[in-house]
Amino acid sequence: MTDARADGPPPAQAAPSAQMAQPTLPSQTAQAADSAPAGQSTPAGQSTPAAATAPPAPPAQSARTAQARAAGSRRPRRRNPWRRGFLALAAAGILAAVAWALLGGRLFVVRSISVTGTHLVTQSQVIGAADVPLGTPLMNVDAGAVAKRVEAIRQVASATVTKDWPDHLAITVTERVPAISIKMADGGYDLVDGSGVIVRWTRAKPSGLPVLQTSLAGGALRGDPGVAAVASVLGELQQWLAAQVVTVSASPVLTGDGGTVVQAQQVTLVLRNGTTVLWGQPGGAAQKNRELQIVLKNKVRDVDVSAPGTVVTR
To answer: Is the pTM of this model over 0.85?
Structure first.
């Protein structure tokens, strides 16, 4: 007898295995992937959904573009030369305008003039010769030209002109100093400096100035080598000897050294006691002064010290 249950439904044990084969949802897979520790791979036979994969790396072209942009930001910009030139011209124009306003305008002008060093001439003479009107822009004053105009005054040996900003002009004068006197044919004496320039005239014989024995008039002595030699010798004399000199003269002589012949000036002094001293050319003053100090203690009429180290007396 056949068992009727053999043709019935399959046994009940197959149902649990069907329940275990249910598919896994995508959300559950993503949570499992996120919660998995780093470095743990997905079990074999299970595929990871696309939403759970890491974002793709940027392409190489994007990296090169970023580098190019960074390099471009560091590259210096080209400056326009016309712009630089315009700015330079504008700055120069502004500076020129400011300089003209300050120096050439009414701010820095001559408002006062001072004169120092005058004894023989007056300050008004110097200011008049300077010829710088008040109100002249100080920048336009030529100090060298002003000094030359002042030096045209006969008694002035040299002049120095200084701009004292912002509005003052200072003139310093060095006057000529008489070295000798010349007796004039019509009376009186011209006082002459070492350059042969007449400093002034006086009626009486000046005290302390020897009289130059010459055939030339005072006005013809400017630049005369004899006058220059006399003035140089008088400056070499010691005070005790210079106080005894009453007249002086110079005469040209020819001297030669090494085949060259030149004209020099020999100076002769006449002392108060009538003694004549042939000094010779300027120079050797220290030895000549010592020799004369010894020789003049005796009564002599003529003394020649023109050759230092050799004294000739008569």
So the answer is: no
